[in-house]
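Posting this for the archive.
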Amino acid sequence: MQSSKRARTAIFFTVFVDLLGFGIVIPILPLYAEAIANHPSAWMAGVNHFLGLGGAGTQPGAFWAGVVFLSFSLMQFIASPILGRVSDLIGRKPVLWISLIGSAVGYLMLALTSRFEWMLAARILDGITGGNISVAQAAMADSSEPEERSKAMGMIGAAFGLGFVLGPAMAGVLSGSSFGHHLLATRGWHLPFFVAAGLSLLASMMVLFWLPETLTDEVRARARSHESRGHAVVRAMKRAGMPQILGVSLLSMAGFAMMEGTFALLVQERFGFHQREVGFLFAGIGVLLVIYQGGLVRVVAKRIPERLALITGLVLMALALPLMPKATWMWPFLLLLIPLSWGSGMGSTAGTALASQLTPPEEQGGLFGVINAMTGVGRIIGPAVGTFALARWGGQTTYNIAGLTLGLALVLALTISPKAVR
């Protein structure tokens, strides 16, 4: 029991430090990509012309920001099931360590470039190694009893939330600092991305020295003996209730990612916010996630079945998203972040807990790889649709589409039989 607590604590801090670096990048990356896209190379100008993004009223920078998000998510979609399954075979620790080193290199590339092509290459590399959350989730499941899965996944969610509290706030401070301005003006280097690289390197050291291997030799042996049974996606789809859970994961992430990929551009247009203010807004979302994942999740897990928690979370998100562009001033907009954030935390925690309960221990890594592959598809579809819709038709259409996507996820969640998960 003591070693399990130690493992969970180490995983929590590892995910927190990793997400702190991710949180630094997310709020400023769309603005950074948009600024670069305002001075397009010849091939980018050709794409703009082909898509009709050069005329009045269009925002080609929003489209290129979407390309950056999509490249990361596409690579993560490909890599997540592979990393998860490899961790079933050789252990969680080595896979997690290697992936964090890859993220550090990707952030370093991002820090040193002012060309869109290198930015794209950096996000592709980070996407390939960025499927490590599936490994962290599997390690957390290894260290928890089935009845504790919601609380354990809540720890992962709390680490996410804390990363999004401090990461975006740090992004705002670093990008607005005199040293950050000096590096950018004299060297063309980006201080926030340097810090993100250092944090991923720190997380890799925490894995190396703090994290015990959570996967037993017996479970690894069973995983190897079952390797010929088929792809993890095929196995998951054969389990009752799992196709719906995976579909919900895809659709809910697609809707949320439409917001995530366009949020900085929306608040810049409506309220005149820049990198610093956007960073603080994302930090506020992180605070709300921490409140839910670090505390409220325990209350919800004790009193509400996971299926009902999943449905409730989707309802909150589906209602909040279309209302965000309608907010005529800042306080209503900020209040809408509460159901959006808590709905996201409730839905993701309940969904992963349900899926974990349906899967044997030797396939947990593959399972979380499949879930993260589905969310990866959502992260591909969401920014691609969201940024293109924003570029062509504006924010209200984008957030209406996001709300409808969450509505489809809700319909799918309602089809999950209570008998399949209990």
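The mean pLDDT is 78. The CA atoms of residues 48 and 54 lie 6 Å apart.
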